[in-house]
Amino acid sequence: MDAEELLLNYQSGKRDFPAILLCEANLSRVNLSRANLTRAILSVTNFSGANLSEVNLSRAKLNVSKLSGAVLTGANLDEAVLNVANLIRADLSKASLIDSSLIRAELMRADLSDANLTRANLTEADLREATLRRSDLIQANLSGANLSEASLILGDLEGANLTRAKLTRADLRGANLRNAELRQAELEGARLRGANLSGVNLRWANLSGADLSGANLEAAQLSGASLRGADLSGANLLNATAIHADLTQANLIESDWTEADLRGSALTGSKFYGVSRFSLMADEITCDWVDLSPGGDGSQIRHFSPQEAYRFFNIESPTVQIRIDAPLDPDAHCVLAAIYRQIVRHHPFIKQPPSIDVGSRRTVLSFRIEEEEQLFLTAYVAIEPFSDATATRTSILESLRMLNPDNSSQMGVRLSNQIVQFGVDMMRKIGHLDDEVLSEKWRSEVGECDRFFNSPTQTILSNLATEYLTIHNHPGFGRNLNDIPGAIGVSGLKLEQYRQLAMPTPEQAIAFVASFY
User: pTM of the prediction?
Assistant: First the structure.
């Protein structure tokens, strides 16, 4: 069948032309809308400007065909072969190209909005300035493809292969790139705001000047990548690996780098206000200074020596740890959860419940907090369910009183203005706390689990510099003196004896607070 015969049959109302052989034909600007051309061999055929909307070209061969400006909206091109085809400015919106082959195809400024390109092979295809809004590119092969200035807003590229792809100034806002392969990709100036890049491989990629604000990069591989001047504000980089990455002058404001690996990376000039950097691996980094101003305007610059940079980046989350000398049983667990729910309602500065580690003999409650200045307040409140609450709170207040110049001068210790002010602020805030927030109902519930809540406790504070302060240590913790003749129980201790055994020394309390600054 030649081109003329095909058109005559189409005009007469025939639509089924499966497996026809029509190579090197000229069908420019023809109307073959809704025709069935499945398995057709149409290599080197000219379809430029043709109306092929909703046509069935599944499994058709269109190698080196010319489809520039053609309308293929809603067309079925599943498993079609369009290698080196010319699709410049073609309209492929809502088309299905599942498992199709478009190796080295020309798709400049083509419209592929809402198209389905699942597992399509677009190796080295030219997609410059193409529109792929909301397109499905799951597991597609785009290795070496040129997507410069293309629009992939809200596109789904999960598991796609974009190795060495060019995405310079491409728009990928809100796109899903989960577990995609972007090794050595060019993403300079790309817009990735709010994109899902969790688990993505961006090793040795160029993301200079890219907008990754609010993006999810959890567990992303960024080793050797260039992020110079990139915007990562508000991004999630939990557990990300960025060994030897270049983050020079990057905007990292309010980003989360918890447990990330930044060994050997460059961070000089980065905007670092509000960055969550707990449990970072940051050995051998290069960082002469960072901008700690809230707006990143350079108003608060902090310079580092190599040793100071190491201390700044290698910190742990401030923690209040309450150790209970008894295992947590199911009944006590339920009561404890309900009590802390009530306590948090009254004290919103405790933002999350504790992690709980239950052993055969002991239970450890760990409250992780963001600011070390909240350590004393959190400990003061968190101990409330336990019978050690009064003694622990007394110890906290005694430690804070040591930060008063009059008390410290008796020990020959000179305090900085920051330490003195900290003590004043903490005493004022504790004075405004409602110590007793538990109702009688919960008091009776605690009484029913008295073995757990009446057990000896230790309360330990740790700060950003991993300095520790045992703010209260019940003298009976870890000891059983009940069956030892002549042993003096805790209740038999004099107040001064109890203080020596249970409370930190003034020197320990002062040194701990001094390490904040």
Answer: 0.74
